[in-house]
Structures
1.
Amino acid sequence: MAAGRRRATLATVAASAGVSVATVSKVLNGRSDVAPATRALVLSLLAQHDYVAPPQRRGEPAASDTVEVEFDDDLNPYSTEIVQGAVEAGAELDASIVVSIRRSADRTGGWARGLVAAGRRALVAVTGELTGGQLGALSRARLPLVVIDPLNLPRTRVTSVGSTNFAGGLAATQHLLGLGHRRVAHLGGPATAACTQARLHGYRAAMEAAGVSVPPGYVRTAHFHYQDGVEGGAALFDLPEPPTAIFAGCDEIALGVLEAARARGLRVPEDLSIVGFDDTQIARMASPPLTTVRQPLREMGAVAVRTALRLAAGERIESHHVELATELVVRGSTAPVTTGDPTTGASAATRVDAAARG
């Protein structure tokens, strides 16, 4: 290589070929999952650019891209699904995935620099509350960021991956209305979370389209935790006219509502129908199995990692926000109103009322 000439990088070759850095890496490593025409083009450009792999110290393993997947709360069934998708994408792209838990208060001034010093190429933050200062620190450290299902973000362009939360809330509520329920409540997550607001808007849209009013106290927000479902469900059952169906903001909340119903002697789904959101493993293990809105969590984790690595390679991405489709999965926790006037849900409501009175 001529003196003073800059060493060609994988990103240089990838840009010339119009492919991702991961594809160039696969060609260099002799991977078979690259189309012959693409392989020939990449090999030609590697020679054209006089590409030379960075020297590797004796005894050290070959370097690979490392993406940090950072959660701001303890791992749970929701986050486990995302990790699974991230790890699968990492294996596909020959990248390492590091999983960490870091509360918002721990993201101090040296946080971003520490990630770079540790060799991270990009950061995937899950349901994080990121401040303008924290985003600025990542920008100064030149560390690409992708956020999954953000709770809230400052008014700036941040790359994020989510799901069709409005459509999911709409489908969940329409399912309950289609079963004859009219006293349908919504027990959601944090009121300021973008996903909570979208699911709530879907719920309200379905209720309004069906000409069904939402009584006072029928919409409650808390956190995405089991205990919030227990307490929120109990509060709904204490209303003068308790609901005969509840759309919960996540599967954990829904399981809490199941427990609150059991404590009141309510049968699910005979007396009370419940719909969750996420379709995590606990939805399938619940008794009865939980009707829920499937959020493609593994796919969200995989898309976030792929996008983060594209940003790290200097590639231009098509959109700064991607929404993956949700799908209603009907199981055993929902059923039609048993008897009585289908416009009022009289039979189920009578039993719920009796249970609420204790």
2.
Amino acid sequence: MTTVSAYAAPAAKAPLERTTIQRRPVGEFDVLIDIKFAGICHSDIHQAREGWGEAIFPMVPGHEIAGVVTEVGTGVTKYAVGDRVGVGCLVDSCRECENCKVGLEQHCTGGGVGTYNAIGKDGEPTYGGYSEKVVVDENFVVRIPDGLSLDVAAPLLCAGITTYSPLKHWGAGPDKKVAVIGLGGLGHMGVKIAHALGAEVTVLSQSLRKKDDGLKLGADHYHATSDPKTFEELAGTFDLILSTVSAPLDFGAYLSLVKTGGALVNVGAPEEPISLNLFSLIGGNKTLAGSMIGGIAETQEMLDFCAEHGLGAEIELIRADQINEAYERVLASDVRYRFVIDTATI
């Protein structure tokens, strides 16, 4: 076992504090990663504050991990010491169910293991990226291309794949009109990726406060949802709408913006349930769908795509002792557009 420094929430809703945790010895197929940067995802806040239900404490959040390999197990074939790598939301799965066999490990039915707030196959809690090092099975590690710096690559391990996967699945590309609801940590990557895929991109945000940013990131249009005229003018416009916000929305209103046969895909995960009049789906043969991150192979595909198109996250680099402040700023929508922890400060 290796003792490493980390930042952990000792209990639900408690401020995160510096502590030490134990990392398992490097096994035959394991990779030891010296974490360089860790993104702060809104999911970290939901889980550290038990917004999504009972959680495991102490909790070391962080599933947007970028670092360098410093040791490999004797059976490792994919990575070598010195490689630039990342770890996202998963560190293990059953590898035998139907979903795992086709590269959908995020939908594992036999026991997927989250990077943190989960129990590993060894019976011990998993701890995430707000730490100095992590040990991960090579099959759940991805390679960060040389074209991406590690700091802007870290958020791609969640924010990048969370938006890339549904955009690809639902056919975002040339001759398609795509709207992104929310210009935050997820939304700004959704705009960048949809634009790179060739779609005509619109941002739907509460206000026009971030309009200049949205257009610079690749949006063709920007509309305020607080203006009722937006829903009148854009009725039946979009082939695909990607909702990235974690607050409950009036999905009926947003479905009115979808073309006949189009889809509204949700990647945000509000803590509260929503209600929906099903006539907003029936009329127009529309689809309301969800999407959850992506499999390991698709995550690698996303990283390669982002490197090819020069797409990194827009980040604000912080010290570890600023994590609690950063959480409050995320909740206040006061970040453009992803906080990333310099783990050298842990």
